[in-house]
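Checked the freezer inventory, then went back to the computational side. Two predictions to log before the end of the day. The first one is the construct we discussed on Monday; recording sequence and tokens without edits.
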Amino acid sequence: MIPEMQNAFLILCLVTASIGFIIWYAFSSSLRLPVRYQIMYDANPPYVHRILRRRTLAALIYAGIPIFIIFCTCWIGNPVWSDLNISFQWTGEVARWTSIGLATVLVMSFFATKSTSSLEIYPELRVRFWRPSILILSMLSWMLYIVAYEFFYRGLLFQALLYKLDTVPAIVACTALYSLTHYFKLNRLTILSILWGSLACWLVLHTNSLWPAILIHLGLCLSTEWMSIRHHREMYVRRA
């Protein structure tokens, strides 16, 4: 990628990381509800729908719009996929690190969700009666959301920074922008986002693939949600 294209690519990613996040937050009304509503468990379809729309909007902002601008406009020239340096290859090394990461997050989720304090965060969907349809919709929306999130932060943004910075500064800058998207959450989540952001960048560099970051992050979100439902009796799954 020529320098002019690199500059435009970086500007696009920085604009998405800043203005894109502001737009996402502005339209995420559920994030601004009083805490007492966010820790209540009841059959609340409007709240469920807001969460699902929020995840879909994030996928559009962080994946749909950037891909459209990159490949369907001339804003950054006429790049091909290889210019982005984003790989989805699956190798033995990718499988090994993904397996290690998934095993780790499963253990973490099992013990972390036993605490009552975890209910302040998970599950995001504040539903007392979990119908199978809600479980499936939540899982699909998590998949859409996490794939887009990792594609942008560990894919587009990280690679755009690597064009202009050395490895360590690029990881620091990418992690800083990623952790800022968690500023409205509890302090421990912000700290965890810094740790995960750094580790995810390292995984992408080490394996030359986005799959470990995507699958480990998705595994964490899904296992935390499912184990929260399992561990706390105020929530349960019903067949109807």
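The second is the one RB wanted added to the comparison set:
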Amino acid sequence: MRALLRRLALVLVAVVGLASAAQAAAELNVTPTGLALRGYDPVAYFKVGKPTPGLFDITAEYKGATYRFASEESKAEFLRDPERYVPQYGGYCAFGTAMGKKVDGDPQIWRIVDGKLYLNLAPRVAEIWQKDIPGNIERANANWQRIEDKTPAELN
């Protein structure tokens, strides 16, 4: 009986772990290996003013994703206040989110608005998004509440 209970407990732990991973995968735009921002340093957008590749050996986990950093100082800054640095909408395209979809956000196509990092899919998409940034952010914020837990495939 004890062996059966242990097995059931292990199965439950595995299921919860898979559900948590699936939840993180739905909420965040990460690579298949769980890497956020395709390995770019999230703090560098704010401190350096440009996308800066992080180093493979300077990382931190946050909400199921791995973030890379260009320096230990950048990592420490991130760990003090991760929500300040993570991209909005889980790193998905801000304009796509305004349209109720989850599409890739390119870390090279970015903008900081009111202290928050936004990514877009492509330069042309960013141009369209920038024509009404406040309106697009308002729509994206409203949509995000509805789509955050859905996978991109569920929204197509």
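For RB: Residues 10 and 129 are 47 Å apart (CA to CA). Residues 3-25 have pLDDT under 50 and may be disordered. Let me know if you want it refolded.
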